Amino acid sequence: TIQMLRLPELIKLIGLSRSSIYDRMNPKSTRHDPDFPKAIKLGHSSRWLLAEVQTWITSKTVSRDKADSVS
């Protein structure tokens, strides 16, 4: 089963504010993250695939661990 997250669920899961999430999605933002999961538009709503969000979280953890091992 494919699980989709609504914005409040995404906020709770990753601990970022609404504006920070949309900044990471916006290529014109200084906080843009090209690896951040893309939203799926459903009418006026946006949803994120749980699997993609989990993969993004894992990639951030791996990046952190690599940086820690270099220090």
Biggest sheet layout? 3 strands, antiparallel
Query: Helical region count?
Result: 3
**Distance between the amino and carboxyl termini:** 41 Å
Mean pLDDT: 93
Classify the helix fraction into a percent range: 40-55%
Q: How do the SSEs run, as a string of H and E?
A: EHHEEH
Q: Tell me the radius of gyration.
A: 13 Å
Helical/strand content category: alpha+beta
Strand order of the largest sheet: 1-3-2
Find the count of extended strands (DSSP E, 2+ residues): 3
Estimate the strand proportion.
5-15%
> What general outline do the C-alpha atoms trace?
globular
Q: Which consecutive residue ranges, at least 5 long each, have pLDDT under 50?
A: none
Explain what this protein looks like in three dimensions:
This protein has three helices and three strands. A hairpin with a 2-residue loop joins strand 2 and strand 3. It has a three-stranded antiparallel beta sheet with strand order 1-3-2. The protein is globular and about 45 Å long. Helices cover 52% and strands 14% of the residues. It has 71 residues and is an alpha+beta fold. The model has no long low-confidence stretch (mean pLDDT 93).
List the helices and strands and how they pair.
Layout: E1 4-5, H1 7-14, H2 18-25, E2 40-42, E3 45-49, H3 50-70
Antiparallel strand pairs: 1-3, 2-3
Fill in the keyword field for this structure:
alpha+beta, globular, about 70 residues, 3-stranded antiparallel β-sheet, single chain, 3 helices, about 50% helix
Condensed summary:
Helices cover 52% and strands 14% of the residues.
